[in-house]
Each structure stands twice: as C-alpha cells, then as structure tokens.
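Re: [ENG-882] Designed sequences occasionally contain unexpected residues at chain ends

Forwarding the minimal case from QA. Structure tokens:
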C-alpha cells in the first residue's frame, strides 16, 4: 500500500526557495517559563506571537500568507513541545482549499509532546471548495505523562455561496502514538462524485461539516462522564455528536447541519476542556474574529 507520508527527499528543506510552506518549531521550559527553542519557517508558512492575556500560556499562531491552498501545494509542519512546557498553538484563520485542475494539495504535520507538557493544538476550519483535492496527514507522539488537546474542523463547501463539496478528493489521516505505541489511527477518504455518500444515513447523512476533538492524557478517563453530560445538551436537529475512550484517548466526533452551530459548540467544549486542564474557560480572542 502506498504511504501518504512525504518522504525526507520530498520535504522542503530549510533554506529552500520553494513556494511550498514549511515550519519547524520547538519549545522548551527554561527558568520557570515556556520559551522558544528553535524556529525555522519558509515559503508561505509563518508564526505570529501574540501577547497572551494574564493566566494564559505561550501562544503561537500559524498563518498561511498565500491565503489558501491550490492543487500541487505542499506544506510541512513539525511542532515539538519539550518537557514541562505549556503552550497553545493555533491557525490564524480558516484554511481554504481551492478548486484543483487535478493535482492534490499535501499537508504533513508532526506534533510531539514530551513528559509533563500540556499543549493545545487548536484548529480553525478547513473549507473545501468544489473540486478541491487535499491529502493531509497528522502524526502525534505523546509521552506517558504529557497532555494534549487537538482536533480538526472540516467544512464541505461554502454554505454562504450555496456551494456543496460534491466533487473532489479528501484524504485525512491521523495517527496517535503514546509512549511509542500506536493507540489510535483514523482515515477519512472521500473521492469522486460524493452526493450519494453525503446523503447516505450511514455516512454524512446530509451534514455539511465534520469535526473531531481529542484529549490525550493520563486522566482522560475522568473527563468522559462530564463531557458526555455536556454533549447531551446539544441540539440534535443541527448537530450529531458522540464521544468515547479509545486506548485511554478521549475522542469526540461531530456532524453539523449548520456550520456556525458546530463551530460554537466545538469552541464551547474546548473551553470546558481548558478549564479542566487548569486554564481559563475561554478561547483566544483570535478564535472569535
């Protein structure tokens, strides 16, 4: 079977003049605070460093200066959170994947969280235009005592324009390793004419958006009951949601018939998870812009 990974020979190198985006970011705990250790960036990917409000950890904001992805684009992100670090890393805005004439966009992300670290990998929406083609792979490595909040938000078309994602390609791959052992792997593959799949009750059931939330940590089992209790309050006419434990990983899956409702519920749950993790029960101001 052919791998979705970008091989080292294919990945953009640090000094490359390629229009592809690449980012290598590592954080370290030093003198009682989380600090930047190394940063390499090139092409269309850049990191912004907003001043965090009182009570918030170090924040890093990733931005695609190209304004979106087109067929043939290749992006690589490598994020390392060192032992004991505390950080929130998020996208500046929704990522738009434009119509392709045939080539795939390829996005390869690696996240490593070391002992006793707490990292938030907070997504914003990925919006798939009609005829977009995206292959994205996320590999996460978490130490036994580390904690990570992570996820994804996918929007299948531009609702405000009356556009539906019914033709194109999406291959979304996640792999999560804890203490070197694979604990969760997931593949979402959409290809070709998609209307029947979008409407099928065993698939998307007419939903226009899809989301995943993950909490990985030694206390994940303690988060299950309060998370389920809160999810029972959601409107089943606009959202379908379920959660469970998989090898000690807390997993929440969403389907949305109203993307704004999904975004608001997703953010509200994330804020509750932040409070359980000892952070303020709010999302960064950038999330609300």
């Amino acid at each position: 079977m052919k791998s979705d990974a970008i091989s080292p020979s294919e990945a953009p190198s640090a000094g490359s003049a390629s229009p592809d985006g690449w980012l290598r970011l590592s954080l370290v705990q030093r003198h009682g605070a989380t600090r930047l250790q190394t940063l390499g960036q090139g092409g269309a990917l850049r990191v912004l460093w907003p001043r965090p409000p009182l009570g918030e950890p170090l924040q890093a904001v990733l931005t695609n200066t190209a304004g979106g992805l087109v067929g043939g684009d290749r992006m690589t992100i490598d994020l390392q959170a060192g032992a004991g670090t505390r950080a929130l890393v998020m996208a500046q805005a929704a990522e738009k994947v434009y119509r392709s004439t045939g080539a795939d966009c390829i996005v390869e992300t690696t996240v490593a969280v070391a002992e006793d670290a707490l990292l938030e990998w907070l997504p914003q929406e990925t919006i798939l235009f009609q005829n977009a083609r995206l292959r994205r792979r996320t590999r996460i490595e978490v130490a036994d005592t580390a904690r990570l909040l992570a996820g994804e938000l996918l929007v299948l078309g531009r609702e405000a324009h009356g556009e539906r994602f019914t033709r194109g390609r999406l291959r979304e791959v996640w792999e999560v390793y804890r203490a070197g052992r694979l604990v969760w792997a997931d593949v979402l593959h959409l290809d070709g004419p998609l209307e029947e799949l979008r409407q099928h009750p065993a698939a998307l059931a007419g939903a226009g958006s899809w989301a995943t939330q993950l909490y990985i940590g030694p206390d994940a089992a303690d988060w299950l009951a309060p998370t389920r209790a809160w999810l029972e309050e959601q409107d089943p006419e606009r959202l379908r949601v379920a959660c469970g434990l998989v090898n000690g990983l807390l997993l929440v899956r969403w389907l949305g018939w109203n993307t704004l409702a999904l975004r608001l519920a997703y953010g509200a749950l994330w804020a509750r998870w932040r409070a359980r993790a000892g952070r303020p029960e709010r999302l960064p101001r950038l999330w609300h812009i």
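QA comment: On inspection the terminal residues look reasonable. The CA atoms of residues 67 and 170 lie 19 Å apart. Proposing we downgrade this to a documentation issue.
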